[in-house]
Design goal:
There is one protein chain. By secondary structure, the protein is mainly alpha-helical. It is about 75% helix and about 0% strand.
Length: about 60
């Protein structure tokens, strides 16, 4: 059984890839990716990263 690389998957998510694209790159099910998206609250994390990046540019 392979381990899911959540960190790498989140990096892809931050690059605007969807769950099916990430799953293909990591050779796993898109449902696995969606489960991590939900469990680790990636949408909010990415939003926070975008805010902190825009603040650091000022």
């Amino acid at each position: 059984m392979k381990l899911f690389d959540s960190k790498k998957a989140f990096e892809y998510y931050c690059k605007e890839l969807n769950s099916k694209e990430i799953a293909k790159l990591l050779d796993c099910s898109h449902r696995t990716v969606q489960n991590y998206m939900s469990a680790e609250n990636w949408k909010e994390k990415r939003k926070g990263l975008n805010i902190s990046k825009s603040l650091s540019r000022d």
